[in-house]
Amino acid sequence: MKVITPQGEHVDLMTLNVGPSHPATHGTLRILAALDGENIAGCVTEMGYLHRGFEKMIEQGTYSQVLPYTDRLNYCSAMMNNIGFCKAVEKMFAITVPDRCIVVRVILSELSRIIDHMVCTCTNLVDLGALTNFWYFFNTREQVYVIWEKLCGARLTNTMTRIGGMYRDTYHGFEDDVRAVLVKIESAVHEVRGLIEHNKIFIDRTKDVCAVSAADAISWGWTGPCLRASGVDRDLRKDEPYYGYETYNFDTVIGTSGDTFDRIMVRMYEMIESVSIVRQALDRLKPGPINTLDARLSLPSRDQVYHDMEALINSFKLVYEGVRPPAGICYDATEAANGELGYHIISDGGTNPYRVKVRPPCFTQYAAYADMLTGSMLADVASSLGSINIIAGELDR
Amino acid sequence: MTYQNVPAPVAPEINLGDSFVTTRVDAVVNWGRRNSLWPFPFGTACCAIEFMGIVSSVFDVSRFGAELVRFSPRQADLLIIAGTVTYKQAPVLRRIYEQMCEPRWVISAGACASSGGFYDCYCTVPGIDEIIPVDIYIAGCPPRPEAFLESIVQLQKKIDKESLVEQRTVGI
Q1: Which one of A60, A320, B36, B154 has the fewest CB atoms closer than 10 angstroms to its CB?
Q2: ipTM for the whole complex
Q3: Contacts of residue B45 in chain A, CB cutoff 8 Å?
Q4: Under an 8 A CB cutoff, do A75 and B49 touch?
């Protein structure tokens, strides 16, 4: 491909297609790069290979039937998507869930954040050729899955929350299991940090690579760990606290230069902060009801159903029709593992959502990806793509 | 969307006929093929994360000889489709299948790849067997790692019954 620069110079560029079936692109992203030698002179990114019609599908089901679909948005941390959606619908009902439910949701969110960061970091390191870290992180991740299985039977796509509460309360011995796995997580993070933090090859591959300045990150609409890696102190858990996050003692991890190294390291240190949050939450976990008693949302007890006509009707309506949020528009966001996960729900007062728009965190990050790559080298395609953690499920929906 | 009707390449052994040597050599060849499957993980969605789970040391797919993950279709003989295949993705999948050399096997992992799953939608392929032949289907959304391992064992049994002198697949 011949390109004439503004200076009138003729440059020979080679076009190279990366993906969609490429290990670093998770099978669903495509990059068309114009190469000047090994440097990327310009590139175009493409998405949509995993567009599964999420937003259209969920208009056909009730609010409860949306939950399994939310699992499959960011499938590395399915619990956080469930929690985000339930929190948005609960906001439409203007109810608060019981204290125990809130604390359990905080524990599950933070554990999900940890395993999401683990998958992101270890696959990123595999793309860089550091396979050992993959074993360290996946072994620990499997132990979190054991807790998930004990909680709800599923490993990956949990559908653990319900609107107004949880699918069920935690099992006997949950606290001990979580405390044990936290120790394993700390040890795994420590081991991986030991392998990469001062590793010359790793630093050479990632330091000052695909750096995004704070101003750029804000103008691209970045959120979450990638934004914080660029040096912006923005965390919904601190800035717009929900579920009592303001009462937990934890630090926001902030990078300095916004390069690939910072993005990986922010995630590594966030795991440690999340471990601290889970420990504090476990101390606050007190016995109590897990589901709200609001009759619009939760089923009455069987005893009431058998002896009270109103309760029977209530149970019947909830099972056959589902919950009915009041008509209106609601936007609610949580700090998911990747950044701000927002649900914009429009209700017409019926049992099906009229429209749900998801604000996925990695959509904005992928939008900036072509800009990040321009001027860097071909080998940085894989390393920087891993560090912005694109999950096609929530990117394409 | 139309696909060219390309006949599958025919193994040269097919000309050998059903003699003592070819029938006995089947046992040896099948033993080799079944115990050294090189998978190409065509992972698009959630199931791919579970596939990473079976490659990791807890479930350890190398016990079944299928741990050498190749990302080039020309080096792989087992295509594992893990995840939803959309109409946009379908030509890519078809092309990758055609690039694989014989003998090749296909595992369709999970509800989406096998039937479209609960994405009954304008954009998802209702099962990859619409575009490529499939040897083993795995149920689950996503399938448990045990189910993944079971599918590899099932495929090994299937390979054991195959013969060099039979043409495996024909163009679809």
Answers
A1: A320
A2: 0.82
A3: 28, 50, 52, 72, 75, 392-393
A4: yes
Tens-place pLDDT, residues A224-267: 899 999 989 888 888 888 888 889 988 889 988 888 999 999 99
Q: Name the residue ranges covered by the structural domains of chain A.
A: 54-368
Write the CATH number of the domain with boundaries A54-368.
1.10.645.10
**A129 interfaces chain B, CB cutoff of 8 Å:** no
Residues of A whose CB is below 8 A from B53: 138, 141-142, 145, 155
Contact indicator for A32, A46 with CB cutoff of 8 Å: yes
Confirm whether B86 is domain-assigned: yes
Of A52, A53, A142, which has the smallest distance from its Cβ to B58's Cβ? A142
What are the tens digits of pLDDT across the range B99-117?
Answer: 888 788 999 998 989 998 8
Task: Please tell me the total count of domains within chain B.
Answer: 1
Give the distance from residue A51's alpha carbon to the nearest chain B alpha carbon, in angstroms. Answer: 7
Residue B110 belongs to a domain: yes
Q: How far apart are CA A377 and CA A265, in angstroms?
A: 21
Residue B68: give the domain boundaries: 40-160
Exposure of B74 by Cβ count < 10 A (0-12 exposed, 13-18 middle, 19+ buried)?
A: exposed
- The domain that contains B137 carries what CATH number? 3.40.50.12280
Q: Is B52 within a domain?
A: yes
